[in-house]
Design brief:
2 domains; 21 helices; mainly alpha
């Protein structure tokens, strides 16, 4: 066998073990009994130790030196293996294992603190997570920026300076649009009870409507909706609020976008570095375009309205036009995952600034809740009423996912570019969506984005799909046009 063949055989086993670790994480959030938290932390630490040893194996450097790629696919495989190996070798094994153990148990502590609305119960653990992430960032960054080093794990090549500059350009237009919408006539809220099982049945049907393959996945409940896995096992979760069915329905569609990305990757890349989404920004572009540009479009919500009438009876909405406005209702709210498209990126920008300050040491953990509440009041004009609506709402920091939050808005930016290209490629798209047919839209995304997996760099795959480099303008133009029409601006 050649050095390339030896390396890929070794890598295949590493990828398979990584999938097992991911399945442990999925189980922890969905099925694991509460009393198993400490043991699960030990299990996650043990498997991380095995994975770290494989990712830093000295033979990888030798294989990389000797391997000769036969084609662009092989060259891309080597590029990703080299990046992973160089990153892993900078992190001490003991630190990698301790991070895995602490972040595993931290998730349970966060969930209980969130349920009890007690920030003090979580802060000591959060302080430990942040200390470990700063240690990891220092190992990775060398003389560079600590936050950039962490963000590179989720969006290779991105920097806080570039992302911060993009946020600064976006914020004025978002704020102007928000002010105009909130000054317009208000949109009513749903006032009806929607049973849990009926919601879950429709959620499953919505997943199928968007192309989710239940022979290679499943839908479960979780405190914080997420998707997990890749290859031929990509699972999704949702949550149910019986007075707010859109929480369930759009969480499901969002996670289907993530899962369909993984399921849509070329099967030749299975259990290789190319067999995963290329970055979290590109990943979020798929979940956000499924959820918003397709799922919240007036064409699709017209079909959805008729479906809900059949399933739930009269729920107090006069027709599809009013329903589209209710689905896209703009209002300041506490919860990021429930935020409308106008407010959503403002949530992300706030978290970006706070977590960057935490990692850089400019904000102490004991001051975080006050900083959060002050910033939220300034940005949204509403005082946080309880911790589960504030600092404790997101799972990310308990998992150690510092550097992840900016990829949500980056994903929205990519989705704006992809939506513009999609509309040009499928001129009759609204007629199809009005029939509940998403196949042209999801098929275009699968062909132009999803099937490539990690073959291209993140910005490159968006550029190839759209014919030009990504920018924030298409997203901002889309928001202005959509909400201008819905609110008569």
């Amino acid at each position: 066998m050649s050095a390339y063949d030896d390396l890929m055989a070794f890598q295949r086993e590493t990828e398979a073990l990584g999938q097992i670790a991911g399945r442990l994480g999925w189980d922890q959030e969905t099925m694991m009994p509460r009393g198993a938290s400490e043991q699960r932390g030990e299990e996650m630490s043990a498997i991380e130790g095995v994975l770290h040893a494989r990712r830093t194996d000295p033979r990888i450097a030798e294989w990389l030196e000797d391997a000769r790629p036969a084609d662009p696919v092989a060259a891309a495989q080597l590029r990703l293996i080299r990046r992973s190996h160089e990153r892993a070798t900078k992190i001490p094994a003991a630190l990698a294992q301790r991070l895995a153990r602490v972040t595993s148990t931290a998730q349970g502590i966060w969930a209980e603190a969130r349920a009890a609305d007690k920030v003090a119960d979580f802060l000591p653990t959060l302080a430990e997570v942040i200390a470990l992430k700063r240690e990891e960032a220092a190992a990775l960054a060398g003389d560079g920026d600590l936050y950039d080093a962490l963000m590179d794990d989720y969006e290779p090549g991105a920097t806080a300076a570039v992302i911060g500059g993009m946020f600064d350009r976006m914020r004025p237009r978002l704020v102007r649009l928000r002010e105009a919408v909130l000054a317009a006539a208000p949109v009513p809220k749903l006032d009806h009870h929607f049973g849990e099982q009926a919601q879950l049945r429709f959620a499953r049907d919505l997943a199928t409507t968007f192309g989710y393959d239940f022979t290679r996945g499943r839908l479960d409940l979780a405190v914080h909706p997420f998707s997990s896995g890749s290859g031929n096992d990509a699972r999704i979760t949702t949550r149910v609020v019986e007075t707010d069915p859109f929480n369930c329905f759009y969480s499901t569609i969002h996670e289907v976008g993530h899962a369909c990305y993984e399921l849509g990757i070329d099967q030749d890349y299975l259990l290789t570095p190319l067999g995963n989404g290329v970055s979290m920004g590109v990943h979020e572009s798929q979940s956000r375009i499924y959820e918003n540009q397709i799922g919240r479009s007036p064409a699709f919500t017209g079909w959805m309205f008729r479906q809900m009438l059949d399933r739930f009876g009269d729920f107090g909405v006069s027709g599809p036009e009013e329903f589209a406005r209710i689905v896209n209702r703009v209002q300041p709210g506490f919860i990021r995952t429930e935020a409308d498209e106008v407010h959503y990126n403002l949530h992300v920008m706030m978290r970006f600034d706070l977590e960057r300050a935490l990692i850089r040491g400019d904000l102490a953990v004991e001051d975080l809740e006050a900083a959060w509440n002050d910033r939220f009041a300034a940005d949204f004009g509403v005082a946080v009423d309880r911790p589960s609506h504030g600092l404790l709402q997101d799972v990310h920091w308990s998992c150690g996912l510092f550097g992840y939050f900016p990829t949500y808005t980056l994903g929205n930016v990519y989705a704006g570019c992809l939506h513009l290209a999609l509309r040009e490629a499928v001129p009759g798209l609204d007629d199809q969506l009005a029939r509940g047919d998403t196949s042209a839209a999801t098929g275009w995304l699968r062909e132009n984005v999803q099937r490539h997996g990690g073959l291209y760099e993140p910005r490159e795959v968006i550029t190839l799909a759209c014919g030009e480099a990504p920018s924030e303008e298409p997203l901002l133009d889309y928001l202005d046009a959509k909400f201008g029409a819905l609110y008569g601006l």
